[in-house]
Amino acid sequence: MIIIERVPSSNIELSTSHLLNRVLQRRQLKDVSDCSFSLKDLLSPSSLQGCESAAVIIANAIITQQKILIVGDYDVDGATSTALMMRVLKLFGAENIAYRIPNRMLDGYGLTVSLLESILDSKPNLIITVDNGISSVDAIAQAKAYGINVVVTDHHLPGDVLPVADAIVNPNLKNSRFESSALCGVGVAFYTLMAVRRELINLGYLTEKSAPNLANYLDLVALGTIADLVPLDRNNRCLVQQGIERIRRGRTIAGIQALLEVSGKNQSELSTTDIGFSISPLLNAAGRLDDMRVGIECLLTDSEDRARYYAQRLYDFNQERKSIERSMTQETEQILAKVILKDDELPYGIALYDPSWHQGVIGIVASRVKERFNKPTFIFAEENDDLLKGSGRSISGIHLRDLLDSIATEYPDMILQFGGHAMAAGLTLRKSEFAKFQQALDERVKGLIHSIDPKIIYTDGALSIEDFTINNAAILRTAMPWGQSFPEPAFDNVFNVVDAKILQNTHLKLELKHPQSNFTLNAIAFFKAKDWQEGTDKVRCVYKLDVNEWRGKKSLQLLIEHIEIESR
Q1: What is the DSSP secondary structure assignment for residue 31, as one 8-state letter?
Q2: Do 405 and 503 have their domain in common?
Q3: I need a labelling partner for 132 at 20 to 30 A (CA). Which of 84, 140, 260, 292 fits?
Q4: How many CB atoms lie within 10 A of CB 548?
Q5: In the predicted model, is pLDDT for residue 49 greater than 90?
Q6: Rg of the chain in Å (alpha carbons)
Q7: Are residues 488 and 411 in the same domain?
Q8: What angle do CA 379, 385, 386 make, to 5 degrees?
Q9: Which pLDDT band holds residue 37 (cuts at 50, 70, 90)?
Q10: Rounded to whole angstroms, how far apart are CA atoms 5 and 484?
Q11: Within a 10 A sphere around the Cβ of 31, how many other Cβ atoms?
């Protein structure tokens, strides 16, 4: 592991906080305008390919009161996309509108042929996909054969063949000139709805005064964008910050309000980290273990009581998800331990399967294993008696979807279906092909791994003793929409160890002393207990400043992300 301090790339002075300015100067920003969160600075919907064509189709469906069906996805991005589309189209005047979410176990991902067959009885005139559809070539061809219009709104990478939809809105289409390919599904849905609003005004169906203000629904856009871990480029930062500021001020829908309550988060000081690690997992748990309709209904209801009911169900789902995940993670580590004993080394690419594993949490377990061993990882569970469903997570330098494409090209009968992007991908294959896939994965990664730099942790440097304040921690938490490609501030110091305790056989609680002072700091290192050595008196830590609140009292706490034992 190599720890490297980020190099300043600008002289930006945005804040009265010296520490915040220091961090921003290390974020590859060109000037102060890169930190502007005005909605006037958003990219125009007219620059997003397919947006205006989709708007014409959707506006016509609203005006003529056609039957509209939204087909979503079972993750947070898909849920927020569905809720956003349902809410806003109704405000636009659509009266005959419904949604369908595929069942993870029965239907697979997105608009599939089997899902299409199950919705034909409802006889929709128009299907709008959100956060899916770009790979639904067969299903959309069949829908068109039945006389159904289809608009695809998606952000996933397209394959070589595009579906024959009436309109496709996707910032990642080839030859796209839209300047933010990082939009997620709910972002694409938001842009499509902006174009629909403009079209309805142009047609005289709405006026500037009567048309709903779409900014009121940026809370949903922020939630989906943060949860989907897309890069927070300038456009996404604006969407997220606008949405999260509305949530902090209490200008949010009943469902998000209830999710905040059940998770115990401080609404007025809500951070992107709170959303990513405390709010979005509650919604995700529904799609993983039960039915994402619970999550969507939570986001659709305007009743505070119903919202609290759904939020509590989501909380319970998430507790169950955590239990399953812990069990699966322990089993995978036991399997990996046997691999090490047998071969004296891990494979270059990890692929694991057990008949008892739950399909709903394979992505989370793949993330845990990947982080633990810093290797591309696929975790598989049974889809049925013959097929396995796999979810993969990658490391920097290995594009997972391209890797799967390479394997599928050499072994055309091995992988039945695959998709994804650089850091995450999914696939379906026959059980009988699993061992061959393990070997092919290992060989492919082995050929790539030697050109990749060792794992690097970037920090914003060391802090002086005067920097360790609750005020600095509070400013850094909420000043910016931190996330992918715009990382939350992290620092790097050597500390003396005053005390160390193991919590729940898993976590490490430390009392640390800064070498410049006798002042001590409380620190917590989640999931680091197994790496701790008794008697350690000096450590080098990569950490974030955090405010710990307990029984109404606030104190400074360090959240340790990486820890190294310093030699005496």
Answers
A1: S
A2: no
A3: 260
A4: 15
A5: yes
A6: 24
A7: no
A8: 75
A9: very high
A10: 18
A11: 11
Inside any domain, residue 24:
no
Alpha helices in 269-424 (DSSP H): 272-274, 280-289, 293-300, 304-343, 362-373, 400-410
- 441: Cα within 13 Å, side-chain hemisphere: 29
Handedness of CA 346, 348, 349, 351 (dihedral sign): negative
**Domain region containing 417:** 345-449
CB 318, CB 282: distance < 8 Å: yes
Residue 421 dihedral angles phi and psi, to the nearest 5°:
-145, -160
Task: State the total domains in the chain.
Answer: 4
Is the residue at 33 inside a domain? no
Compute the distance between CA of residue 169 and CA of residue 154 in angstroms, rounded to an integer.
Answer: 6
- The sheet with strand 350-353 has its strands ordered as 350-353, 377-382, 387-393, 424-430, 415-420
- Judge if 217 and 269 occupy the same domain: no
Same domain, 399 and 470: no
Place of tokens 């009436």: 166
In this structure, are 466 and 552 located in the same domain? yes
Least confident residue range of 151-160, 221-230, 243-252, 414-423: 414-423
Per-chain mean pLDDT for the chain: 92
Confidence of residue 515 (pLDDT cuts 50, 70, 90): confident
Q: How confident is the model at residue 334 (pLDDT cuts 50, 70, 90)?
A: confident
The residue to which tokens 């997992």 are assigned: 281
Q: What is the CATH number of the domain that holds 431?
A: 3.10.310.30
Model pLDDT for residues 394-425, shown as the tens digit of each residue = 988 888 888 998 998 899 889 988 877 778 88
Query: Would you say residue 461 lies in a domain?
Result: yes
Residue 437 lies in a domain: yes
Burial of 139 (0-12, 13-18, 19+ CB in 10 A): buried
Residue 545 tokens, joined: 């400043």
pLDDT at 73 over 60: yes
CATH code, domain carrying 67: 3.90.1640.30
pLDDT value of position 176? 94
- pLDDT tens digits along 248-269: 999 999 999 999 999 999 999 9
Instruction: Please list the residues that pair with 428 across neighbouring strands.
Output: 389, 417
Lowest-confidence segment of 303-307, 321-325, 411-415 by average pLDDT: 321-325
Q: Which of 248, 264, 294 is the last residue in one of the domains?
A: 248
- At 285, give phi and psi (nearest 5°): -60, -30
Alpha helices for 104-146 (secondary structure H): 113-119, 137-145
C-alpha distances (whole Å) from 131 to each of 91, 128, 296, 552 are 21, 10, 14, 41
- What residues are paired with 150 via a beta bridge? 127
Within the chain, what is the greatest distance between any pair of CA atoms?
Answer: 77
